[in-house]
TrEMBL record:
One of the protein's GO biological processes: regulation of glutamine family amino acid metabolic process
Enzyme Commission numbers on file: 2.7.7.89, 2.7.7.42
InterPro entries: GlnE, GlnE_rpt_dom, NT_sf, PII_UdlTrfase/GS_AdlTrfase
Catalysed reaction equations from the record: [glutamine synthetase]-O(4)-(5'-adenylyl)-L-tyrosine + phosphate = [glutamine synthetase]-L-tyrosine + ADP; [glutamine synthetase]-L-tyrosine + ATP = [glutamine synthetase]-O(4)-(5'-adenylyl)-L-tyrosine + diphosphate
Protein name (database record): Bifunctional glutamine synthetase adenylyltransferase/adenylyl-removing enzyme
Organism: Mycolicibacterium duvalii
Length: 978
């Protein structure tokens, strides 16, 4: 039995009951054994014998003599449980599979269904006959489609199957419309109604089981006629669902909320004024299917010109990009590898790519005005918009995936696109046999299916990018003096523009430069660029991304590892394109620290960008600088390592691998290391053999002291010194001042790197005061002359570099100033409020929007930090946890001490994080410090992406920012204003 593919324990007994145990039945049994599921087929035959009763002998005899019947019957029974059940319920239908069987033409199908509808009593009474007729026609098609798995019957081409299913759907819709019209109107003439097929039915590539997408169009007429047409359409949908398939009218104007039936005039008005890009994309497959044929043709003639100009709409590119992202995000990760339709390298990838290319070039080339995916691929290949080989390969992959989809749906006549679980060996083996997979010497049929699935999915993913970009690269290739046949300059620019490139002429120039010549680099770039350009088109600024990639490629021309890494490490290449097309800050760093690109790869513990000991990196920076006796070379070494760390941190941030607090912490660590390295180098250069005349400490202030630096932050510091034993104070201060001034000037020397500004303006007496003071001088000043704003500034003072013991003594001294016993006076609190009001009135830059300025705007960083600091001034004398330089940690302490409501604490924390993230994102995108969020447009979308906002929707990002900061401002007014 095993040799016959029969594993059920009763298989032999079942064969005996059928009498299939003689030499005359050997050939019949071998045919049975080749069914996709021989046991299921045998059980169905037994049930069929019982259903036929006295008529079994005729079928039994026919099976012995009619080889084609054997092949069709066993194949369909072993492939489809649902069609097996239909055959048991209507046993005489086996005769449809006997002898010379051919598929009827569309007009013949329509005649069959019209006759059945006309003969029926109407309404629900018509359904059984129509349902039986529909299943009979499915049975014949399926039997012819799968027969080659049993006998060497001809394989039905995919296009034939899809067209016949669409013709069958047309006939069924027409019959349902006829019955519905009679039910609603009786003997009265019904209003003219056209049924427009959409989707796969419209394209004549329907599945075995699929919703049939339609749009209903009524002739322009009286309101009463429209109401009657709507009743007919609703009744038709109900009848179709009972007898054939679900009819889905959700593609109509306004979707499910819109009118079920509109007049032609109303349709035209909607598409002229309100339709979105996806609605024009859907219309590409529109086709009159049933009802008023002349009205259907008028509908097509009126709307098709709009379809082929849709790519010129202002919102075409962002809508297309949003559609792509939406498809990818709708699919749960756990089924992505099993999804034939929506998974990576699946059917939707093919269909979306083909339709986009049709929309882009269809206005100028009517040969692309075809509905089916297979025909469109052929037309795109013939027109030179994609390579002919690519068109053929994509067609083969598409038809293979559709074949698997058809087999899965046939099994139970259920709508599905999901492959069986990988460990469900029996289900996968059945699918392999049903899909004509044959052993190849190395693998059995199951192994062949698994290998083919991997190959086809990979090929679709690869070709998906090539379809868009390979012809562009060929058009600027090294062997062409002009442009390739079929892809002229205008077509190339049009395609790039549709893919998101605002400067298509410049983009072509960059492509020409990257692929020019016959060198190995040019050849590798030709292989890489289709995929890289596809990823770039998903970034906020593909034009800048392509320019940055060209600059980086030129810079790395002599580094063989660069292109090799991009070729072999897909994750590295994809992440790099995201960075290059989003940020103006990071690419310049990568030009000078390209080794960071290798950290874009995944390591054993996650992304290598994050697998770095930040404190260890800081120590390495200081140690590297210490190897140089010349301070200029020492600081250059420190700059080099800083550059590398900035590139790493910013890349990890932009790629969503670090949260904002960790970004700030790591940036602070880098700044502190640079300060320490510079201070050490300058101190060595200014110290004689007798030793330094003073100890010098650097006190971090502002965001540096709070450990909350951003990309655009300066380093606010105070310098404090202590004379060495036996050294006069004036000598010590003069020496320390020289060292401090050299640290500031040498770090501040202009360079290609982000600025290194050391700001000492928060020192006593500001810019007019001495740069360096002794500890005693600071204590004297703060005890006698400290202004409220200076006390407030000291709340963020923290030792960061230099002599740490001296820095600690400074902090102990200022604790008495910033956290005085009994707290600060009411006058000081009032003065702080007055100063804040003045800052609000005077410091906002001219022309800045107070609602979207991340630092000084409504609910921005200044609002949150001044509020937290005022609470520290008022309560830190009795709440030790408020002795903290971090805004967020101080907020935690405020909440724990219940100084304000926990909900208010959350609003302030959310606003601080939102504003900090936005401020950092602004620098990443624009490449320079700025605090003002831009208005709607590409720049705002890029900021949204850099801030980690889903889908890079600048409008939603801005709405969220305004909402969060508005709520925080209400808390600030309540708490800070008293």
């Amino acid at each position: 039995m095993g040799r016959l593919g029969l594993v059920h324990k009763n298989a032999q007994a079942d064969l005996d009951r059928l009498g299939w145990n003689t030499d005359a039945h050997v050939e019949l049994l071998w045919s049975l054994s080749r069914a996709p599921d021989a046991d299921t087929a045998l059980l169905a035959v037994l049930r069929l014998r019982e259903a036929l009763d006295a008529g079994w002998g005729e079928l039994d005899k026919a099976l012995l003599t009619d080889r084609s019947l054997r092949g069709r019957l066993f194949a369909v029974l072993g492939s489809s449980l649902a069609l097996g059940d239909h055959l048991i319920a209507h046993p005489d239908s086996w005769r449809l599979l006997a002898g010379a069987v051919a598929l009827p033409r569309r007009d013949e199908l329509i005649a069959m269904f019209d006759a059945e509808a006309a003969d029926s009593a109407g309404g629900a009474a018509a359904m059984p006959g129509l349902r039986t007729l529909y299943r009979d026609r499915l049975l014949v098609l399926a039997a012819l489609d799968v027969a080659s798995t049993v006998e060497n019957e001809p394989v039905l081409p995919f296009t034939v199957v899809g067209e016949h299913l669409s013709d069958l759907a047309d006939a069924a819709l027409g019959a349902a419309l006829q019955v519905a019209s009679r039910a609603v109107c009786g003997d009265t003439e019904p209003p003219q109604l056209a049924v427009i097929a959409m989707g796969k039915c419209g394209a004549q590539e329907l599945n075995y089981v699929s919703d049939v997408d339609v749009i209903f169009v009524a002739d322009d007429g009286a309101h009463s006629s429209l109401a009657t047409a709507t009743r007919i359409a609703g009744e038709m949908m109900r009848l179709s669902a009972d007898a054939f398939f679900e009819v889905d009218a959700a593609l109509r104007p306004e979707g499910k909320q819109g009118q079920l039936v509109r007049t032609l005039e109303s349709h035209v008005a909607y598409y002229e004024r309100w339709a979105k890009t996806w609605e024009f994309q859907a219309l590409m497959k529109a086709r009159p299917a049933a009802g008023g044929a002349e009205l259907g043709e008028r509908y097509i003639d009126a709307l098709m010109p709009m379809v082929w100009t849709a790519c010129e709409r202002e919102d075409f590119v962002p809508e297309v990009q949003a559609m792509r992202r939406r498809v990818e995000e709708l699919l749960p990760a756990e089924v992505r590898s099993r999804e034939l339709k929506l998974g990576t390298g699946g059917l939707r990838d093919v269909e979306f790519a083909v339709q986009l290319l049709q929309l882009v070039h269809g206005r100028n080339d009517e040969s692309l005005h075809v509905a089916s995916t297979v025909n469109a691929l052929a037309a795109l290949g013939d027109g030179g918009y994609i390579g002919r080989d690519d068109a053929a390969n994509m067609t083969a992959s598409y038809e293979f995936l559709r074949l698997l989809e058809h087999r899965l749906q046939l099994q139970r006549l259920k709508r599905t696109h999901l492959l069986p679980e990988a460990d469900d060996v029996e289900a996968m083996r059945w699918l392999a046999r049903a899909a004509h997979m044959r052993p190849d010497g190395r693998h059995d049929s199951l192994g062949v299916l698994r290998e083919e699935l991997k190959r086809q999915s990979h090929r679709v993913s690869r070709l998906h990018a090539k379809l868009f970009y390979q012809p562009l690269l060929e058009s600027v290739g090294p062997d062409q003096l002009g442009l390739a046949a079929g892809m002229n300059a205008q077509a190339a620019e049009r395609q790039l523009a549709a893919l998101g490139y605002e400067g298509p002429q410049s983009a072509l120039t960059h492509l020409r430069a990257l692929t020019g010549g016959s060198s190995r680099r040019g050849r590798v770039q030709q292989v890489l660029l289709p995929t890289l350009l596809d990823w770039l088109s998903d970034t906020p600024d593909p034009d800048a991304g392509l320019l940055n990639y060209r600059r980086l490629s030129d810079e790395m021309a002599d580094q063989r590892w660069f292109l090799g890494t991009l070729r072999d490490e897909g994750a590295v290449a994809k992440r790099l394109m995201h960075v290059l097309g989003t940020s103006a800050y990071i690419p310049d760093l990568l030009m000078r620290a390209p080794e960071v690109i290798q950290l874009y790869a995944d390591g054993p513990n996650g992304p290598k960008l994050c697998d770095v000991d930040t404190e260890g990196a800081a120590r390495s920076l200081v140690a590297s600088a210490a190897r140089h006796s010349d301070p200029l070379r020492a600081i250059a070494a420190a700059r080099s390592l800083r550059r590398r760390e900035l590139a790493r941190i910013a890349s990890a941030d932009l790629l969503g691998m670090l949260d904002v607090t960790e970004v700030c912490r790591q940036l602070t660590s880098v700044w502190v290391a640079v300060l320490q390295a510079a201070l050490d180098a300058v101190t060595r250069a200014n110290t004689s053999e007798g030793g330094a005349p003073a100890r010098l400490a650097v006190i971090g202030m502002g965001r540096l002291g709070g450990g909350e630096l951003g990309y655009g932050s300066d380093a606010d510091v105070l310098f404090v010194c202590q004379p060495a034993d036996g050294v006069e104070e004036s000598v010590a201060v003069r020496w320390a001042t020289t060292v401090a001034e050299q640290v500031r000037s040498r770090l501040g020397t202009p360079s290609a790197d982000p600025p290194l500004e050391v700001d000492a303006d928060l020192r006593p007496e500001g810019r007019s005061g001495p740069l360096v003071r002794t500890l005693a001088s600071y204590e004297a000043y703060y005890s006698q002359w400290a202004q409220p704003w200076e006390i407030q500034a000291l709340l963020r003072a923290h030792r960061v570099a230099g002599d740490l013991s001296l820095g600690e003594r400074f902090l102990l001294m200022v604790d008495k100033i910033r956290y005085p016993a009994g707290g600060v006076s009411a006058e000081t609190v009032q003065e702080i409020r007055r100063i804040k009001a003045r800052v609000d009135a005077e410091r906002l830059p001219r022309g800045a929007d107070p609602n979207t300025h991340t630092k000084l705007g409504r609910g921005g960083l200044a609002d949150i930090e001044w509020t937290v600091q005022l609470l520290q001034l008022r309560f830190a004398h009795r709440i030790k946890a408020l002795h903290n330089t971090s805004t967020l940690e101080s907020l935690n302490a405020i909440g724990a001490a219940e100084l304000i409501a926990e909900g208010d604490v959350e609003l302030l924390r959310d606003a601080w994080l939102t504003a900090t993230k936005a401020r950092n994102a602004l620098v990443l995108v624009r490449g320079k410090p700025t605090d003002q969020l831009p208005g709607p447009g590409r720049l705002l979308n890029a900021v949204a992406v850099a801030a980690g906002w889903p889908e890079g929707d600048g409008g939603e990002f801005l709405d969220n920012y305004l909402r969060v900061t508005r709520r925080a401002k209400a808390v600030v007014r309540k708490v800070f204003g008293g």
